TrEMBL record:
Protein name per the record: Damage-inducible protein CinA
Alphabetical list of InterPro entries matching this protein: CinA-like_C (IPR036653), CinA_C (IPR008136)
Domain (CinA C-terminal) ranges: 16-143
UniProt cross-references to Pfam families, sorted A to Z: CinA (PF02464)
């Protein structure tokens, strides 16, 4: 029971975060798209649980397979061959791929891309420990002030990545990944960092 209450509290916290992010995106005329590996659709679920999310959240590409990351999202095959899927640059390219994949006419410069990749566990994968995760956000140029971003500038986007070390079971790592990406996106969109 104790674990279930904690999970329920986290889920309701995630719902509040997702709702706040969606509201901020509406205020800023921004859209969201995701690409997911270890979370397998949980990132999308965090947003679509909120009624009315469809006016901001465009969709999520679940690219669990390494080749799908290249063929669907455009992640550089050489990068995947050299480093595998669990790498900060892979997360950045996945986020960029999501933003591009879901950008339709009229969406240009408005789609933020999100991504998750990592080792959910229960054991290590290719020498990387369970709980090692990279999340990334692709922010179109001009959406946020440059000094608030940092990250890699590429093709009209700032690509931000974050390394996470999450403890616990496979499910806790997956849900913790979503939570941490929501927290980082919420911080990034905080009003104090937005253009006047």
């Amino acid at each position: 029971m104790k674990g279930r209450r904690g999970e329920t509290a986290t889920a309701s916290g995630d719902d509040r975060l997702a709702r706040r992010i969606l509201d901020r995106c509406r205020d800023l005329d921004l859209l969201l798209a995701a690409s997911e590996s270890l979370t397998g659709g949980l990132m999308a679920d965090a947003f679509v649980r909120v009624p009315g999310a469809s006016d901001v959240f465009l969709g999520s590409a679940v690219t669990y397979d390494i080749e799908a990351k290249a063929s669907v999202l455009g992640v550089t095959p050489g990068l995947l061959a050299e480093h595998g899927a669990v790498h900060p640059r892979v997360a950045q390219e996945m986020a960029l791929g999501a933003a591009r994949l879901y950008t339709q006419p009229g969406h240009e410069g408005r789609v933020l891309g999100l991504s998750t990749t990592g080792v959910a566990g229960p054991g290590p994968d290719n020498g990387r420990p369970a709980g090692l995760v990279y999340v990334a956000i692709a922010v179109p140029d001009g959406v946020l002030p440059g000094d608030a971003l940092g990250g890699l500038a590429l093709d009209g986007y700032h690509l931000l990545s974050y390394e996470l070390h999450l403890p616990g079971s496979r499910e806790r790592v997956r849900r913790g990944t979503v939570r941490q990406l929501l927290v980082r996106l919420d911080q990034l969109l905080a009003p104090r960092k937005l253009k006047a």
